[in-house]
Design brief:
With 796 residues, this protein is mostly helical. Among the domains are: 170 residues, no CATH class; 104 residues, no CATH class. The strands form two sheets. Strands 4-3-5 form a three-stranded antiparallel β-sheet. The chain is elongated. The relative contact order is 0.05.
């Protein structure tokens, strides 16, 4: 029997591993035949002599040529010369330096290390050498071996560039000192005399723990540093060069790590880091000083974040980040957050709570600014944090203008850090705090006067976290809020009942009398409104819808529909500009209306009080309005006849005065909020808190009333459905006028002025246009009211 003795004949001149017979082995049986015929194996020596050399002589030669075991412990202390290193390594490279070793089959690889072919397969020689003896141990089935092992090949100069260029192969692969070596060699020993300290660190790490538990994917030294071509850390091609660390760690963690209990995938960690400020600095800009995985998690002694020894454990995070962000760590330590952490409060936020661990973005980027409030809210939206049971700081911030507009995506309004600071957050009583009374004016003005440049002592009495529902701490704000709750409840309760009863009575009349008499609109009409009245109303429609559509998104900024609506107008800031535009238009229209009233009063100069203010044409409330209202409710419940109305009905007067007072209330509070620093010269800052409540709730009252009660009274009741076009055409058909305003008709006939009010019928296109505009307006209004109702309960 013959076997490959190339491991023993190191002084042979022919280059090893170049035998065609050896490279063509396909199976154990065929391998046996090719083995005995191979010129490399037999060297033209009779088979019986070859077997004898293999069994007796060659092990002795190999033992004589193997270096003493003690020389493996410390090559440097023995002062092995480069020539001796090259000579020693040549023993290994005789085989491993040949490229086709990477293509050998499992059978061929076992033959190389001393096993010989037999009828039973590859077995140890009858009198095994030391290496063959090792291989005589029970081996795993050959079909479990890798088909090929490319890693067995070491190309030219593979070792020359590395940090181990002056080491012998057997300094790391100690079990290969004697040839033939075992079929399976233990991993290279890196943690001996050379790398003792890092080795100890690794043994304490999670990676070693995984290895002990039998995890075959657990990394070894070679996983991170490479196997043979280990380059200095400063070499750009080194696996542990800062620009390459992310790929080394990421490749392994993406493939083999499990999802976190929260469902966060390892691939998400890697992708998040690559897109972070650190990742972009490393992969995009090539900044080797930017943090990589090893900088934060450690190099060799890596622990899970929950382990108190981990560099990314909560208590250690500030110190870890402070290794790079010098100064910031010291500032954080003096802040309320840092002091709470030192006191052992587990709720105290650390760097990763605000900046995240892997998705870190630059603090001046829009994305970071948009997410900052939510980051603070993660803690400060917890009622337990207030220890009072009151609204959280996050809730009260979101109720403020700053919180509303930031929710709509604006980066211009003040966020938490603009007022409280970022790393240097101090208690309000601390003289260095940005919220200390001596510093508050400067804080409100902002850096370079970018915020409220004209802020003064009055201005800073505004409370950005005031809770108007807190009766104990904010009694004035609570009273204002309760006033609106009562007024809104009364208005919607009374007129809501009015609409329901009216609808039911009209339905009964419709069932009893059918559609009734159809009015002929082709004849002359009676003028009801002047051109100025109609123009005023058109602008009322435009400004009301404009202010509603641009203002409601702010009040309901946490609702998706409100955010989409604000986006339609160009975002929160742009919607605010549109809101101010419509406000200017409203003020202009209101001014024109007031001028029209003055002119009308002058026309009644002789008897202004008797006719214009107290007469039947007045818009002021009269005793008749009360009797008409009572009579209307009696009619609703079949208790009497329908009242005979004059120029104006009681619900029309209510609409008018609600518009007048509402415009004044909303406009006045809006101006306070528009120019706060100017008005702070005249009013205390808490008035702006009042203005916030007034402006929002008066707007809710107006929107809710107009889009429900007014729409029903003017257009949706059965007598007028689908649209009452009188405000567009300015006239009523005379027949309809007689039915609706019998008392006014009788009065006009009596004093002979009815003919003065007769006008030709409107153009044929007026009513269709009025119907289209009216229906569109009602659809928008009713839809918006539905959305407000869905979200309104949380506001009330």
């Amino acid at each position: 029997m013959h076997y490959d003795s190339s491991h023993r004949y190191e002084n042979r001149r022919p280059a090893p591993m170049d035998v065609p017979g050896l490279m063509s082995i396909a199976s154990d049986k065929k391998a046996t035949r090719r083995f005995v015929r191979s010129p490399r194996l037999s060297c033209h020596v009779p088979l019986w002599l070859t077997a004898l050399l293999a069994v007796v002589a060659l092990p002795l030669i190999s033992l004589a040529q193997s270096p003493p075991r003690s020389s493996l412990l410390d090559r440097r202390s023995a002062q092995v010369t480069p020539q001796e290193v090259a000579l020693q390594n040549k023993r290994c490279l005789n085989c491993h330096g040949q490229s086709h070793i990477s293509e050998l089959t499992p059978s061929e690889r076992r033959v190389m290390v001393g096993l010989v072919p037999s009828d039973e397969g590859l077995v140890a020689p009858d009198e095994p050498s030391q290496g063959a003896g090792q291989n005589a141990q029970e081996l795993p089935p050959i079909d479990e071996e890798p088909a090929v092992r490319p890693g067995l090949y070491l190309g030219p100069n593979t070792l020359d560039r590395g940090v181990h260029a002056d080491l012998r192969c057997i300094d790391c692969h100690r079990k290969a000192a004697t040839l033939p070596h075992a079929v399976h060699l233990p991993p290279a020993d890196c943690t001996g005399a050379c790398h003792a300290e890092p080795g100890i660190d690794v043994l304490r790490s999670i990676h070693a723990e995984m290895k002990v538990k039998g995890d075959k994917q657990a990394p070894t030294c070679a996983t991170c540093h490479g196997s043979h071509e280990i380059l200095p850390k400063s070499d750009m091609e080194s696996l542990v060069f800062p620009l390459n660390v992310v790929k080394v760690c990421g490749d392994c963690h993406e493939q083999h790590s499990k999802n976190t209990p929260e469902g966060y995938a390892p691939s998400d960690h890697v992708a998040a880091y690559i897109d972070s400020a650190h990742g972009r600095a490393v992969t995009g800009s090539g900044l080797v000083v930017a943090a990589t995985c090893a900088d934060c998690h450690g190099h060799h002694e890596v622990h899970p974040a929950a382990d108190s020894q981990s560099l990314v454990h909560r208590e250690n995070v500030p110190r870890t980040c402070g290794q790079c962000h010098m100064g910031v760590d010291a500032t954080y330590r003096t802040s309320v957050h840092g002091q709470k952490l030192e006191a052992g409060d587990e709720r105290a936020p650390v760097c990763t709570d605000c900046h995240t661990a892997h998705e870190i973005t630059r603090a001046n980027t829009p994305d970071f600014k948009k997410g900052l409030v939510e980051e603070c809210g993660d803690c400060h939206d917890n009622p337990d944090m207030t220890e009072t049971g009151r609204a959280t700081f996050y809730e009260t911030y979101r109720q403020s203008y700053h919180g509303q507009v930031t929710k709509l995506g604006s980066n211009l309004a003040a966020r938490c850090s603009d007022c409280h600071g970022s790393h240097n957050i101090l208690p309000k009583a601390d003289s260095l705090s940005r919220l200390h009374p001596t510093n508050l004016v400067s804080t409100c003005r902002g850096p370079g006067g970018d915020c409220h440049a004209g802020a003064n002592r009055n201005f800073i009495t505004f409370d950005p976290h005031a809770d108007f529902k807190d009766r104990e701490r904010y009694p004035v704000l609570y009273a204002v809020w309760m006033y609106f709750v009562i007024v809104m409840s009364a208005a919607f309760g009374f007129f809501g009942l009015h609409c329901i009863l009216w609808f039911l009575r009209s339905a009964v009349e419709r069932v009893k009398n059918g559609n009734g008499h159809k009015v002929d609109r082709r004849g002359p009409g009676i003028r009801r409104f002047t051109v100025l009245n109609r123009v005023n109303h058109v602008f009322v429609i435009i400004t009301f819808f404009g202010l509603t559509l641009t203002g409601m998104p702010l009040l309901f900024a946490d609702q998706l529909w409100a955010q989409r609506l604000a986006t339609f107008f160009g975002g929160g800031v742009a919607a605010g500009l549109w809101h101010r535009f419509f406000a200017i238009m409203l003020i202009g229209n209101f001014t024109v209306h007031m001028i029209g009233l003055v002119r009308s009063a002058r026309r009644h100069n002789n008897n202004m009080v008797r006719n214009w203010l107290l007469g039947p044409r007045t818009m002021l409330p009269r005793i008749k309005d009360i009797s008409d209202c009572i009579g209307m409710f009696r009619w609703f419940v079949f208790g009497g006849k329908k009242p005979r109305f004059d120029r104006w009905t009681y619900w029309e007067k209510f609409d008018y005065w609600a518009e007048i007072f509402g415009t004044g209330i909303i406009g006045g509070s809006g101006l306070l909020l528009w120019f706060p620093t100017f008005f702070s010269n005249f009013v205390p800052g808490w008035m702006f808190n009042v203005a916030m409540i007034v402006h929002g709730y008066e707007a809710l009252l107006a929107v809710g009333f107009i889009f429900t009660i007014h729409f029903f009274n003017a257009h949706l009741r059965m007598e007028k459905f689908p649209v009452d076009d009188v405000i567009f055409s300015g006239q009523l058909p005379e027949e309809e006028f007689i039915i609706e305003r019998p008392e006014e008709h009788a009065r006009l006939v009596a004093n002979g002025t009815l003919d003065e009010l007769r006008v030709p019928p409107p153009a044929p296109w007026v009513r269709p246009l009025a119907i289209v505009i009216g229906i569109l307006a009602m659809l928008i209004g009713v839809g918006l009211v539905a959305l407000i109702i869905l979200a309104g309960l949380q506001v009330l």
